[in-house]
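Retro notes - structure team

What went well: the batch runner handled both jobs without manual restarts.
What didn't: labels got mixed up in the shared folder, which is why I'm recording both outputs here explicitly, each with its sequence directly above its tokens.

Job 1
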Amino acid sequence: MKHSYFMLHLAVLCLGLSGVFGKVISLNEGILTWYRVFLAAAILFFILKWYKIPTDFTFKEKLHIAKNGLLLTASWLLFYASIKYSNISIGVICYCMASFFTAIFAPMINKTKFRLSELLLSGLTLCGIALIFHFDTSHQLGIVLGIISPAFASLYAVHNEKLTKKYNAICIN
């Protein structure tokens, strides 16, 4: 239980620091995302080689995995754009909409029932962002980009869940 709380706090810290780095680094969001993707791909390449994990996928399987990567890349691109066009707190708060989008996308894609509790709880985040959007018109573009970003993150999460059941999770994350 304590390990789970530690991991949760570590994830929140990493997301917050990612926002800070996104704001203070003078590169635009496209170049910044490209460097992030390149660095992650390089690290993953060396991990796969170090542990001798087989990566012999068919072309169709590679396309499914690449689609997953494109969803994550789009999410980060929009996240950094949100921060660049508004501020760190707007970008990180809007990213919290991922739970709302996941509550909608997961049942639709997996063909399961919607869970009212998930929709209601994540709807609270939507209400909070609506208040910010209504009262502070100077950050509207950042908020719009920040709300689209977690939609891609949710699609990534749902798609990733399917892929990790089928393939070695290290190869696709």
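Job 2
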Amino acid sequence: MAQAQKIYFCGSIRGGRDDVHVYQRIVHVLRTYGTVLTEHVTDGQLTDTGEVSESGDKQIHDRDLDWLRQSHVVVAEVTQPSLGVGYELGRAKDLNKPVLCLFRPESGRRLSAMIRGAADGQRFVVLDYTQDQVESILNQYFSQNKI
């Protein structure tokens, strides 16, 4: 693992904030593997109205794309459907970033075929999990993938 590893974490903001506690748990573990560029996604005060930016949505888009370009790996919690997360994952795939998507089937939802179908088992990995497995899954992923 590189000393200055940068991790881009994706989780729903405007698509719904029901899973913020899950995002917090994931990011807590991710910090042991590097710098999480998008920790604001775990902010419990952030609502589904999104961030407030004086420069508007374009500034948020451009900032986040810059972080995505800087990142060494992308980890996404994809249980809560989100147009923004889907967009970020498509861009990450185009940038050839290693991507790990985490989905909780216990939610009763079905993961988009565009996400599950993108999985190649190497650069784009999709794993079903339970919250109790967060630490072990991330440990296994980062141990096997020297990013």
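One thing worth noting from job 2: Residues 6 and 72 are 5 Å apart (CA to CA).
We'll revisit the folder naming next retro.
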